[in-house]
Each structure stands twice: as C-alpha cells, then as structure tokens.
Amino acid sequence: MIRRLFHKPVAVVSLAWIAILIILSVLAPVIAPYGPQDQDLAHALEGPSRAHLLGSGVLGLDVLSRLLYGGRVTLVSTAISVSVYALLGVPAGLLAGYRGGLADKIILRLSEVAYAIPGTIMVLVVLAIRPGDETAAMIAVGALAAPALARVVRSATIALREELYIRAARLAGLRDWLILRRNVLPSVMGTVIVHVAIFATTAIILETGLGFLGVGTRQVTWGEMVAEASHNLGNQPWLLVPSGFVIISLVLAFGLIGDGLRDATAEGYSIRQTSRARGRGNKPARSAKPDRALPNKAAANIPPDPPPTGPETGALLALNGLTITFETNGKPVTVVENVSFTVAPGQMVGIVGESGSGKSVTVAALLGLLRGTGQVSAGTMTFAGQPFDLSQTKALAALRARRIALISQDPMSSLDPCFTIRYQLAEVIKANTPLRGTAVGERVLELLRAVRLPEPELTARSYPHQLSGGMAQRVAIALALAGEPDLILADEPTTALDVTVQAEIMDVLRSLGKAIILVTHDWGLLVDLCEKGIVMYSGQVVEEGSVERIVAQPRHPYTVGLLRSNPYFATAGQPLPAIPGVVLPPGRWPVGCHFAERCSLVRPVCSEARVALTVVRDRPGLTRCLFQDQVAAQAADQAAAMGAALGAALEIGVQGTGQAAGSQP
Amino acid sequence: MSAPLMAAEDLAVVYRRPGQRTVTAVDGVSLAINRGQTLGLVGESGSGKTTIGSVMLGLIQPDQGRVLLDGEPAAWRSRAQRAVMARRIQAVFQDPFGSMNPVRKIGQTMSEVPRYNLHLKPSAIAERIERALADVGMASDVLDRYPAQFSGGQLQRLAIARALVVEPEFMVCDEAVSSLDLSVQAQVINLLASLAVSRGLAYLFISHDLTVVRHLSHEIAVLYAGQIVEQGPASAVATNPRHPYTKALVLAAPVPQPAEQRARREARLRLAAPSARGQTGLADQMGQVSLADSRPLASRTPSSGCRWAPRCRLVRPVCRSERPVLSSRRPGWKVACHFDTEAGLAPDLGEST
After folding, report:
1. What is the DSSP string of B274-338?
2. Residues 559-618 of A with CB under 8 A from B
3. Residue B252 in contact with residue B241, Cβ under 8 Å?
C-alpha cells in the first residue's frame, strides 16, 4: 500500500509537507533563531529581513520562531483529537454494526445525545473549567465528533455483515474480533481514512480558532498569530501571510493525503473490478496482464469473410463487418471482430456463446446502444433495404421501437415503477403509431393478450411491482411489440426466470410471427426457438448455419466442445468432456485462431494467421476452422461413443412424452 | 445400519415479517445423506431449497425439526459449537465474487479457518493449502492475489479449495455452478464429482437445473413450495418422473436436440393444454393465483391440500382438500401425489379434465 501511495505525486508532496512541518516543530528549540517570547522592540511589526526571516510581530517577536513553536501545539492537539476520534468512533461503529441488537441501540442512542450537544459550546465549557488546558479541549472535540464516525462505520459494517464471506467466517466459528479485524476493518478502511482526514482538517481549524479567540493554551499558537496579524492588518499586512499559509497548506495536505491513502488502499484489490459486470453489461473485462496483449489488429487489415449464408436477397437485416472496440486503460481493445450475418423476414436467429464472446455487444450495436467507451469502429447494416453505418448511432435512433425492438434480461429495467402498465404501453403506442383515443386502450389490451397474459384488464391496471417475473417479462415483450417492429432483439430474455416460466415465454416469442434475434448461452433455448444459429467465441463468429445441422454435425471444435460439456449428453458417473482452459479476455486474443489455446486439434498453422470463415464442405453452413474434416471425424466418433448416453437421454423424452401422451384424449 | 452422515428431520422454517402474512418456506422436509453420497435438491425460485441448505449449515434456525450429524443433533448456538461444526461441514455458494472477501488476498482467506479454528501450524496450513489447490487445479501463485484478479470459474475453484482446506466430510453446494459458463461449469462439475470419490465427500447439491443435478447426484429430491414432492434415485427421477410437477420441470427444461426438444415441447403443451381456461398455459394458471402478487411462492399456494394443485392439469377435488403424503410405492422412490400408482399416473385422469 505504501508503495502504491508513493506513485501518487500529490500524496507524496502532501506527506512530505506534513513531515517537514512535524520535524521542524519538533526541532523548534534547536533550530528556531529566537525563543517564542524573545522581544526585539527595535524591529517590531516588520516584513522579512535578515534578522527576522519571516518578519516580526508586535514587540518584535520573531514570526519564524513563533511558527515553529506554535506548530508543536497545533500538531499535538490535532493528533490528540484525531486519535480520540478514530479510537472511539471506529470500534464503536464496528461493534454496533456487526453485533446489532443491544450494542447497536446503546451506541446509536449515545451518538444521538452527542449530536444534540453543541460542540463549540462544549469546548468552551471545558476550557472554562480547565482554563488553558487545550489537551482536554481537543479530547472533547474528538469525543464529540466520534459518534459521526461511528455511524458511518456502522452503516458500512451493516452492509458487509450479510456478505457471504463474513457469514462464512462467522459460521467457521472464528472469534468476532478476528472477523472484525481481518475481514471487516480492511473493507471499511477506505471510508475511515477519508473521514479521519476530513476530521483532521476540522481539528486544525478548530485548534487555530481557539488560539485566535485566545481561550486555548497560554503557549504561542498559530491561531494566536493569526489574531495578532488581524489586529495589525493595517500596519503590517505581511504578518498574516506566514501563519495563514502554514494553516491553509496543512489543511490542504491532510485532505489530499486522505484521498491518496484511500485510493492506495483500494487499488490493491480492485484491479479488475469491472470484470464483475461481465456478461451482464456490455463492458469487456480488463486484462489482468495487459503486457501479454498482442497488438490490436486494425479493422482495415482484416480480410473479408465470405458472404454470410442465408437468403441474400430480401433479407430483413444484413449485418456486414461489425467491429466493436472498448477503451481499456486509454487503449482501444477489440471485443467484436468483423461479424456479419443476415436475418430474413420472420426468421428466428440465435446467437449462442459464453460470456465475453461479444454476443450481447453485437446486438446492442445494432440499436446504437453501446454503453461506456464502446464504439463501432467498422460495420454497416442494411435494414429493410435501407443502408446504415453502425458507427453513426444517431441515424439508428429512428429504427428503435418502430423497426427494431429490444427485450432485455431484466424486464423490470424496461418498466417504470411509478406508472401503471396501461399508461406505459399507451405512451409507447402513441409515440410510435398513429393510434389515438380509445383505439390506444384497445391496442393495449390486444398487446397484453398477444403475450398471453391471463387477465389483460387486471394487468393493465397493475403497477410493475405487482407482477411476478414471468408476467413482467410478458409485459416487456408487449412493450417491445407496441411500436410494431419488424425485428425483435431478445438478449437473454429468460435468464432470470424459472424453467416452467421460461418455456412459456419461449412459446410467446414463437407465436409472434416476427423476426427475432435471440442472444443466449443455453443451447436448449437455441434449439427450442431458432432455425438459424450463430456460434460466437471471443468476438468472432466461429460457426453459422441451421440449428439442426450445427447441433447434429458441428464443424468447429468449440461448438463440439461446448455441446459435449452439456451434462444432458453425459453418462452419469463419467466426467464431462469439458473444454480445458479459460476464455481469453479481449486484448489478449491471438492473431490466429482465437480458440487455438483450448483446442485438441490445434496445429502450428492455426496460430500463424487469421483464420477465415469458410464454407462447410459436407453440409450448408460456415465454420472458422482450418481442419473441419478432422472436426467432422471427431464429432462423428464422439457421437458414436456417446451413443449409449444419448440413448439414455432420449429415453427421458420417450418416457416423458409417452406418459404425457397417455394423459391426452 | 449406522446413522447417515447428515440428516434433517421434519424441518420447518417460517418467515415472519411484520405487517405481512407469515410464509412457511420449508414445511416438513426430511433428508438423509450418507458418506460419499450426493443428494440433489431441485426446485424453482421460492421452493425453499436455499433455506434448507442454510438450515443444514446452521445459518438459519429451523422453527421445527432438527439436523443430525452422525446421528447426533447438530448445534450452532455457541461459537465453540460453530467451530466444531465448521470442521466437518463446509459450503460453496453461487456467487464466487461474494463468497471471497475482495479486500483480502486469496492466501489470507484460505488460511483463516485452519489457523484460527483448527489451530494448525503454518507448515501444516501450507501443506493443506497446497493439496487443496492441486485438487482444484490451481497453481500456488494465486495465494498472493486478490479475488478481483480471477474469473468467475477460477474463483469458484478457489472457493472450493478454501472449503477443502478444512478437510470436511460434508459440503453444501448452493447453485455452485449456476453462474458459470457452460465450458467452465463442466470443469467445476467434474471437479466436484472427482472430490466426492477421492475425498469421500458427501454433498447436498442445490440447483434449479435438473440436468446438472442428475449428473452429479445419487439421489434427487424435488421441492415445490417448501415441500418435497418427489424423491428417489437420480436417474429414475430425472428420466421417468412420477409427480406431475417433476414432469413439468423435466419437460420445460430445453435440451440441445431438435427432435427431442420438439417432442418435449409438444408433451409440455399437451400436459398444460388449456381446456376451460382459454389460452392460458401452465404458469399462467399460476399467474392467476399470483396476479397482483409478487410474494414468495410458498405464500401464494393453498394452505390445505396439494400445493401444486392450482397448476396441475390432473387436479381432482381430493387434491384441494387433502394434502398428499410423501409415500413410497417403489423401494427408495417416494412421491407425494394422490394419483401415484404402481403404473404411474392414472392415464384416464387426463381425459376428463
């Protein structure tokens, strides 16, 4: 942490300045040219001179010497009150937040009492009882402010208390103080540091205030010097400069060092925090070791793939050469590379892939909805005969809702909790269609019936929070239909739902008669809904073709591997044929085949140059593999080897359907 | 016969929230898991599966029933009791990011329990950590890194390694592979399966995914609205379910085989075929129960009779009045349905609905 702190110039300068002030103050008796009360009446109220480097005050008291001596008072007082503040506030907050119950109640009540006491008056009372005892006063300051810190620490601790790792530690029978010290304290440390630094600045100002008012210690203080300067502002304005500067600079230094310390504590463990959002957002994971990254290929250098399969003429959507970059550490990193495909009117297309494959980002780019630093660096789209440059997101706005609609993973995110379903649907209808008046209300009910909601009237009157997850997703689909689009993009629309509800949402999507692009990680859903499948891996399309063909005769090693990893095909008791290794994060993709590192069929040639999408030889479709014949042989071998397992799997269906059929008239 | 390693007897957990109806999240659930065996617990959200796992871990005190470890009542009341239990029972949770403290290095987190609970010497701790890391296939250079430097799959392996360091006999895996990508999920499933063999570990494997549960488990218990509706040998329950709910669950899970998926879809639609209810499907009938109601499943189901009845195509008057008992018509295979006969569900039931 210390090492990281020293990489922050502002923090280093602040730290150095505080250190210098401390050293100078400690050494005051040795280095100060005069004593704090040494008078030099001949040179009273003068600016800087050889005799008095920082000038002299009333009675010719040396400003430099008094600053040095005064620093001792201020720094010691600040240290005392900050210590009291932290030593009272942090343990009390940890205890209240972690233990809850009675301890929490007592600490909260005490802190409320402390809040109610006017601090300044309390300090003056302490000084009235013990005149000149600034130590007592500063202890009072720290103690009165501590409840505020305790409350902050308490809230942070409560938030942590239910974290799995804290629960696990408690369950492991670890002692509470151990859990607090090892697990909770490090997490709240950032907050504590910021608050302590802020309080330190307050303490400095308060201490100098006491000196200014003359109610503090009888020794010389910076506050007293400011008071002296203010009395003589007309005679010698310079006098305010040294004391004012030293106070302001110290306050500033404490504030800046607090920020630096907080950042340094957090940096150690938050190297890749964005990766948590992977899969959900369309932000790419940051590479842990960017030094291993290969240079990014410029989109222009990528040779074109053959034209995608499918109906070339009359395609509803033809995507061509989509390349997307995100900025990571100031450098553009490619997350989607040269993706092309077509969608025919009414066609159901599925993009299947794991997190980091770029499937969600691809779909977001079609609507011009890339988040964060995401940018389309190349790519065009023809939609219903109209050309679009996907990097020009403004033009795409006209397509949204009216031509292309989006259904997201979380239906609640597309519904406003403050308005009824009827109101929200009506808004979209009015914005996108010529319908007005009672026709809008009728259309609302029609849409709710189209998504097979059992009681459209009742649903229309409901607010989003009154709906279950499956119903909310149906409403979200109705919202998507409201603009009468030709194409629906469904990005993992059922991931948050139970399987029985998921199956019915799929039924709804199937019944719409619209072209759909389904983004999913679930082969079962792809098979259930789509005719055409696109398999993505590490930002590239690796296989494309009819879903039936891809599943029965995969022609890319990744497709083979991913299908086999599915426990559905496995024999119970046998290990699953898992794909070894991990998905490489964007920025670490090799020049050659992106899957090479994990592929069992890999040859040196795979890593030499970019592998192009080529036509599958023995069936319609495209694959990005140099050895598709070997893949075909491997897939056939495995199909044979898995014959028994598959037979068993099929038996489920036969028996399941058999019985269900038996229950049918 | 000796007592099972881990058992739950007649568990009930009631959630009481001020101003709301009390919810019986778990209702009369009994389970038993032998050494080296895996029990899969399947159910949809709100079925109470996570609550049962929490009871077995001592995170929740049951309102009724008890947990037995080696035939002795398990207790987590005092810290000393918890420390003893933690040496034998460990857990792996769904969110690998949440189960590792983000501000502590992996090594610090992994050595915590061996050091402060087992009071092992540093050399013994290092040995155990090394063995656990080898078991999960991670290099020992991970110890000096923070959780944020790993992918979800790697972190889940480390979470398993942390549990292994304690050398437990029993592990609760609550959706332990659900957040992982398919290729990584397969790796972790293999890892768990091999540990069961090499270390003789017993698992309570909780998941919504019947396919995954079937692959890993010896026995499966299917949970609906806090009650076990079917329990039996894994392959039997998964391939030839007898309870209508299990059947619905099996048919609703999409499979990557076009012909089979088509057959399942058709069977599902037939099973849920609307008769007098217009075009509403299975979950929509549920929807009618749940409309304007986002409370947990258990609170939306009838308190008398079969809890699945409102969604069941085969429902008869007796289903609404009498709660079916989980009973065994075949050895080791229990079903809670009034119409579970030796021949399966009575075939004529479908016609008159």
Report:
1. -STTTT--HHHHHHHHHTT--S-HHHHS-SSS-TTGGG-TT--HHHHHSPPP-EEEETTEEE--T
2. 561-563, 565-570, 572, 575-580, 582-583
3. no
Contact B263 A465 (CB under 8 A): no
CA distances from B102 to A183, A188, B149, B155, B207 (A): 9, 12, 10, 11, 25
Model ipTM? 0.84
Separation in Å, CA of B203 to nearest CA in chain A: 15
Looking at CA atoms only, how far is residue B114 from chain A in angstroms? 10
Report domain extents, chain B: 89-167, 245-327
Mean pLDDT confidence for B202-226: 93
Closest C-alpha to B8, from B63, B69, B60: B69
Q: How far apart are CA A200 and CA B146, in angstroms?
A: 31
Measure CB to CB from residue B271 to each of A172, A276, A660 and give the nearest one.
A660
Which among B39, B38, B40, B36 has a CA at the least distance from the CA of B198?
A: B36
Question: For A2-266, which CATH superfamily applies?
Answer: MetI-like (1.10.3720.10)
CA–CA separation, A573 and B308 (whole Å): 32
Name, in order, each residue with C-beta under 8 angstroms of A351's C-beta and a sequence gap of 6 or more: A359, A362, A363, A517, A518, A519, A520, A533, A534, A536
pLDDT tens-digit profile of B146-186? 888 888 888 888 999 999 999 999 999 999 888 888 888 88
Q: Give the residue from B218, B179, B221, B222 showing the smallest Cα distance to B196.
A: B218
Span(s) in chain A for CATH 3.40.50.300 = 317-403+485-652
Q: What is the C-alpha separation between A532 and A550, in angstroms, rounded?
A: 9
Question: Is the separation of the CB atoms in B144 and A271 below 8 Å?
Answer: no
CA proximity to A137, closest of A215, A235, A231: A215
Give the number of beta-carbon pairs within 8 Å between A and B. 304
- From A314, A525, A272, A567, select the one nearest B217 (Cα to Cα): A567
Structure token pair of residue A412: 């609640």
Assess contact for B333 and B228: CB atoms under 8 A: no
**Which residues, other chains included, contact B183 with Cβ-Cβ below 8 Å and sequence gap of 6+?**
A354, A561, A562, A565, A578, A579, A583
Pairing of strands B227-233, B327-330: unpaired
Contact A582 B76 (CB under 8 A): no
| A56 DSSP 8-state letter | B
Counting Cα atoms < 13 Å in the Cβ hemisphere of A172 gives: 31
Q: Largest Cα–Cα distance in chain A?
A: 119
Question: Within chain A, which residues score under 50 in pLDDT?
Answer: 272-301, 308-311, 644, 647-665
Give the confidence band of B316 by pLDDT, cuts at 50, 70, 90. confident
A171 with B186: Cβ contact below 8 A: no
Q: Which fold has domain A317-403+485-652?
A: Rossmann fold (3.40.50)
Q: What is the mean pLDDT of chain B?
A: 83
A272 to B149: CB separation less than 8 angstroms, yes or no: yes
Q: Give counts: helices (H), strands (E), chain A.
A: 24, 12
Query: Which amino acid, one-letter code, is at A564?
Result: R
Q: What is the pLDDT of residues B333-344, one digit of tens each?
A: 999 998 876 545
